[in-house]
Design a protein that fits this description.
27% strand; Beta-Lactamase; six-stranded antiparallel beta sheet
Length: 175
């Protein structure tokens, strides 16, 4: 069971038009999640990760400064970056939210970070909507939590795109 803030973002994303096909950024109204705004972020998908466009005040305090233009993977310890990069790929490939569970020295418990894909104005699936959800109210006052350590990644809800399957032509496997 996720924290109520995490579940709120998941439910809001699932209710967006064309959620099964990855909804448009324009369909997302940040004011619908006004109480969570300090914990929200928007990022551009990059290869292999994401570059932050906007980050709420709590996220900027937690990471010690302005986050605009920051490579999101650099906020994670190096040993967890492959898991985080895989979660980014998964959220787009499966067209569903993915929740990462992370730890940081400056927090009293695990941090839930949910990411969900969005389409930009061009129609390309290249935006990430995200939320940091600290589990304890005291952690919402945290400054400079340090690098994030990835512990778990899990897709949430039904896979909206067909899973990859093995294909063969004339008996020869090709994919």
């Amino acid at each position: 069971m996720f924290h109520s803030g995490t579940q709120t973002l998941i439910d809001h994303w699932l209710a967006l038009p064309q959620a099964a096909r990855i909804p448009a950024r324009a369909a997302f109204d940040p004011m619908a999640l006004a109480g969570l705004m300090p914990q929200l972020f928007m990022a551009d998908r990059t290869d292999p990760g994401a570059r932050l466009r906007l980050a709420g005040g709590w996220i900027e305090r937690a990471h010690g400064g302005s986050m605009g233009g920051v490579d999101w993977l650099t906020l994670w310890r190096e040993d967890g970056r492959p898991m985080v990069a895989a979660a980014i790929v998964q959220t787009f490939r499966e067209a569903r939210p993915v929740v990462l569970v992370a730890e940081a020295e400056g927090l009293s418990g695990p941090l839930e970070i949910v990411i969900a894909p969005l389409r930009s104005a061009s129609g390309e699936a290249d935006r990430i909507l995200g939320l940091y959800q600290p589990p304890h109210a005291a952690d919402r006052q945290a400054d400079g939590v340090g690098s994030l350590s990835a512990r778990l990644s899990i897709g949430v809800g039904p896979v909206a795109r067909a899973p990859l399957t093995l294909a063969a032509i004339d008996g020869r496997r090709i994919a």
